[in-house]
Specification:
With 363 residues, the chain is an all-alpha fold. The protein is 72% helix and 3% strand. The protein has 15 helices and two strands. The protein has helices spanning 13-20, 37-59, 67-74, 80-115, 127-142, 146-168, 177-200, 204-214, 223-242, 244-250, 254-259, 264-286, 292-304, 311-330, 338-362, and strands at 24-28, 31-35. A two-stranded antiparallel ribbon has the order 1-2. A hairpin with a 2-residue loop joins strand 1 and strand 2. Helix 5 packs antiparallel against helix 8.
């Protein structure tokens, strides 16, 4: 091959490979990690954006607090009234928002990578709707309290994922990503119809509570939601990161991944369990917040300019998106849940994604 030969993207092979393999490998004993300066810088910027938006969220409300005073109250250097407002009344909401966004962004990256489809998001393949159905049954049928609603939401997401996985499974062939997405979309449509039916059969007060929960909201969130979510993420996030190498190899195709020593079906099952756990924990804490899991992984890829599943950047992008969405919702002329804001932003993003994909396909 001559030196002037170029890749389909227009760059010489050496330069294209250099861009794909930027960074260096850092080893500590038997563990090796690829250090990528751009990805590290993007993660740092996203973490700062998420933290800054969370500080502004804590400072927003009927009693506004300047960011320096918020930071002082967080470290115990503020006056007693400000510390009470910040640490007791507002901080749980901001922490819950960050953790929910992180969980949704990470889950979206897992499922989009597994399905090799940018639309392979838990929003669209039924898992989020399953969590919503579980919560609605508890609210409208059994009349349980907050703990029961949380447990039912998590159970609904897990049972939906189990049903979709079993239907998508083929003896001898396992689960194929495209098949998982198609069956998940069908399950989402059926669960959406069930949710609408449950609301139409409910009493007015219960229907209002259920409809409000379905929009996805951080209003009234306290440590009862933040702490269980943080515990779940302390288990699920490390598990996802440990599986990230196998997830990246899976994008090469099942045959190639098996040739590289990856147990494809077992790894896929573990990834489904981790991804569904993240969705279930996030939905139980804040309701079905739409489009964060869809948009965060794609934005992370564009920011890092790296192929494959960018799990940590996607998680931080999700946290930043939800924190910024919550901040916007608090400063709207009319108070609204954060799910309305993310739904509008996500709809615009989805239209853009489909239009650009269509142009590439026609080209």
């Amino acid at each position: 091959m001559s030196a002037s030969t170029k890749t389909p993207g227009g760059a010489p092979p050496g330069k294209a490979a250099g861009r794909a393999m930027t960074g260096r490998v850092v080893r500590a004993g038997t563990v090796s990690v690829r250090w990528e300066p751009r990805a590290a810088a993007v993660c740092a910027a996203l973490a700062l954006l998420a933290a800054g938006a969370a500080v502004l969220v804590v400072g927003s409300g009927d009693f506004p607090i300047a960011p320096p005073d918020v930071v002082a109250a967080l470290v115990g250097q503020g006056d007693r009234a400000t510390e009470f407002i910040v640490q007791t009344l507002r901080l749980p909401r901001a922490v819950t928002g960050l953790l929910v966004g992180l969980a949704l962004g990470l889950s979206g990256a897992i499922f989009q990578s597994m399905s090799r489809n940018p639309l392979g998001s838990p929003d669209l393949i039924g898992f989020t709707q399953g969590g919503a159905s579980g919560a609605l049954l508890q609210i409208l049928v059994f009349g349980g309290g907050a703990v029961a609603i949380t447990a039912s939401s998590a159970a609904g997401a897990v049972l939906t994922a189990l049903a979709v996985y079993l239907v998508a499974y083929r003896r001898g062939g396992g689960v194929v990503g495209v098949r998982l997405v198609l069956i998940g979309v069908a399950a989402a449509a059926m669960l959406q119809a069930l949710n609408s039916y449950l609301i139409t059969r409910a009493e007015l007060t219960e229907a209002y509570e259920a409809a409000f929960w379905l929009t996805g909201s951080l209003n009234g969130r306290d440590w009862d939601q933040a702490v269980p979510l943080a515990v779940a993420l302390a288990v699920l996030v490390p598990a996802a990161l440990l599986l990230s190498r196998s997830l990246g190899m899976g994008e090469l195709g099942d045959d190639a991944a098996q040739a590289l020593g990856v147990p494809v079906q077992r790894t896929r099952l573990l990834l489904v369990i981790v991804g569904v756990g993240l969705v279930a924990a996030a939905t139980a804490a804040a309701g079905p917040v739409p489009f964060v899991a869809l948009a965060a992984p794609q934005l992370a890829r564009r920011l890092t300019r790296r192929p494959g599943a960018q799990l940590l950047p996607a998680a931080l992008t999700g946290a930043a998106l939800l924190a910024c969405g919550d901040l916007i919702s608090l400063h709207m002329p009319v108070a609204m849940p954060v799910g309305v804001v993310t739904g509008v932003l996500g709809g615009v993003y989805l239209a853009w994604l489909l239009s650009t994909s269509g142009r590439r396909g026609m080209g």
